[in-house]
Amino acid sequence: MIPSFSRIIDLEQPRFSGMPIHPAHKPGYFYALHRRHSDPTGTPRTSAAGVLTMMEHTGTHIDALSHQAAHGCLHGDIPTSTVESPAGFSQHGVETIPPIVKRAVFADLNPLDPEYQFTADDLERSLGDTRPNPGDILLVRTGFARLWHDEAAYLKAAGAHKSATIWAADHKVTAVGADNMAWDVPGIVDKETGVTLFAHFYLLPQKGIYIIENLNLEELATTGLKECLFVCLPLKLNGATGSPVRPIALI
Hints:
Number of domains: 1
CATH topology: Glucose Oxidase, domain 1
Number of strands: 17
CATH architecture: 3-Layer(bba) Sandwich
CATH superfamily: Putative cyclase
CATH class: Alpha Beta
Helix content: 10-25%
Radius of gyration: 19 Å
Order of helices and strands: EEEEEEEEEEHEHEHEHEHEEE
Structural class: alpha/beta
Number of helices: 5
Oligomer: single chain
Distance between the termini: 17 Å
């Protein structure tokens, strides 16, 4: 029997030229209408079609395991030199991510200060008695989705402290996701490893946990719920390191 849902919530941010883009992924996104209805055809039927140019890691998207390496290796201790080529990756490309239809737990931490690093304790306080089970998705609202039309402000969003990333990995989630650019706070250096974007260094190559970025969790927050059914379908872009997604929450 197919379960019924009273509400479907769209978790994707709109895509447009000028939306926030991480500096490493500039120029990011460009769409141009190439074929126009105003072009002469000599028939009553006209067509329109455009050209889309974009980096994988722009807008609401998911990071494949090939996106990051630790000490020269992808997840599973696969040397990057053995699997990467100009055509992409022969292992851990985004096409290997199965359709995600899983329970998600939702930690609403809004409001947070710019570049605040939310901790494991912050997550536990927000979730109360709710906890992610192995295989679940962890979603975190910082409140910065409201600044999606202001790149400078959005790039200063709060993000995960190392303790929050380790907490998520210890709960063996399938993926983490937040309404910010990188889950992490860009530019923060982890003193132990010397890396920035600690979660990217830890979750993807070491733990095999995906990262979903630039979610819009504002509507989900209005429900007051701490869990939902989460659906996320990456595109089958062979060998790619990420994919745009349009995730939804089913209530």
